[in-house]
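pipeline: protein-struct stage 2 | run 1193 | Ferrichrome ABC transporter permease
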Amino acid sequence: MRKRDVGLVAGLALLLVIIVPLGACFGDVKIPVSQVWEAFFNRKSSLNGEIVWEYRLPRILVGLFVGANLAVSGALLQAVTQNPLAAPNVIGMTAGASLFAVLALLIIPHFPVSGLLFATFFGALFAGLCVYAFAWKKGMDKGRFALSGIAFDALFQAVITGILVFATKGIDAAVIWLAGSLWGRTWEHVFLIAPWSVVGLGLAYLCYRRMNVLQLHDDVAASLGMRVQAARFLIFLIAVGLCGSAVAVSGPIGFVGLVIPHLARLLTRADYQRLIPVSALLGAILMISADTAGRTIAAPIEIPVGILTAFIGAPYFLFLLRRAKL
């Protein structure tokens, strides 16, 4: 990477390091930054230390991983479809993961988090394969992929609504989860999502050359020796893993995967070697910032982070639609 890009990544990483302790300061109980730093290194230093270590730090780390996963998942889907409007919540992957999670929570209201992770992964995979199958026409057609995704997203959302309308018991856990929130997240959630994030983000970065080549015409990519459809499917599977793991621990959170890749392109070139780390850092920063704002704007009432990201992302989505003249 060029010096400018290295400086950008380093600057965003520094900003993230600053935002993490600041996020731990705010909530029902405001804690000075000095005590937050002390709690990071000595959890039993005080009552505030216990609050930071047991409640706020796990929540912040979950937000970090969720934001990075959703942002990079969106960047990967935009590379696969070559469509700037592609994102996990737009093409049905988030809705598919949510549908499987709702079914699991209705069957077992206190469904274990580890089981929910696999339910959302297979839900995202099922949704993605449905979209992929309908988009296949002598190869994956990029336009059909985006349109099929929008159709399946509407279908899965309708099924979720119908289930909630007709369900007689176990609905409370599902409704709370569907709000999309980081409330009550613990170290268990951190340890569950962390391996998926490390492996998924690492694989995404290793595929940056393939994604760069995919931005060329398919014939050009094939002439360079790339198996185009195999490369698309591999990148798609990585996006599924990142999306499913994020939805499992936070519920459905929209627009992060849509907004962040475009913001990353404004800060750096469209080279995916730069775009992947910048998107991951920006996604983490947005998620932690939105969650911190949700805890403080109307304290002691908490605004779910999914609501705030929708307020940010929906206008931007409309802006993209207008620019694309769809």
